[in-house]
Design brief:
Elements: H1 4-11, H2 16-30, H3 47-55, H4 64-73, E1 83-87, H5 93-99, E2 105-109, H6 134-141, E3 147-150, E4 165-170, H7 175-185, E5 189-197, H8 206-216, E6 224-225, E7 231-234
Parallel strand pairs: 1-2, 1-4, 2-3, 4-5
Antiparallel strand pairs: 5-7, 6-7
Helix pairs in contact: 1-2, 7-8
């Protein structure tokens, strides 16, 4: 049971660490399974990165940690040749970070939201959610000029059958499009290239996690699961 007096003393303190304790007390009452994090990260005060988060309305923190992680992981492939690609762009936040590499960037998206979830995907998602228009994505990514491949995954993958890739980002939430994406791009990812699945490890995306685990079961690369959700591996 939350102590009102203790909560108020901490909440009104000038000490940020005590106010964090108050926030933790409130969180323990409102959502006991939620785990707060520290607030002293340097990158939370990175003006350029915060401007990027603001551009996509993500300073609230739900996606910020994964955005920062992708921003850092892409540093690993600066000297690796190849295009970049995102499967499932939504509003383009991850694609913006990939475009910063300065390569030819491809986006595969239905621009109609998610396809119909299967039983393996659980009951969190519904058909049609997470829809964004082509115009909105292009406007968000300006002045970058990615190549959009509109259609359901994997229907348009043949457009890039002869291309090689340095970084692949998959964010399609469901089993089948995740499996189709890694099936196609794994062999086209250059050695030293980066593969990221944004949905891996979320209880809301069991299908996406299974798709990656199933495909990678007999592959030499090690899947690294990230604390804020998602996973990555570097192609050998």
């Amino acid at each position: 049971m939350i102590s009102v007096g203790r909560f108020l003393r901490n909440a009104t303190s000038r000490d940020p660490s005590r106010r964090l304790r108050a926030l933790r007390l409130a969180a323990d009452w409102l959502l006991p399974d939620y785990r707060l994090t520290w607030f002293q990260y340097d990158w939370w005060r990175d003006d350029e990165f915060n401007a990027y988060l603001d551009k996509f309305g993500e300073r609230d923190g739900f996606n910020a940690h994964r955005r920062w992680m992708l921003h850092q992981l892409l540093k690993l492939v600066r000297d690796v040749p190849g295009d970049t690609v995102e499967c499932g762009a939504f509003l383009g936040a991850s694609s913006w970070l990939m475009c910063e590499l300065g390569r030819t960037h491809h986006i595969f998206d239905s621009f109609q939201g998610l396809s119909q979830p299967d039983t393996i995907d659980g009951d969190h998602w519904q058909e049609g959610v997470l829809s964004a228009t082509e115009g909105a994505v292009l406007a968000n990514l300006a002045p970058y000029t990615p190549i959009l491949h509109k259609g359901w995954i994997p229907d348009r993958f043949s457009d890039v059958a002869d291309r090689r890739f340095v970084a692949v980002h998959v964010d399609v939430d469901l089993y089948q499009p995740t499996r189709d994406s890694i099936d196609f791009f794994y062999t086209r990812l250059n050695p030293g290239g980066l593969f990221v699945c944004d949905d891996y490890g979320f209880t809301t995306c069991p299908g996406a996690t299974k798709a990656i685990d199933d495909f990678m079961a007999d592959k030499p690369e090690t899947i690294v699961s990230m604390d804020a959700g998602g996973c990555f591996f570097v192609k050998t």
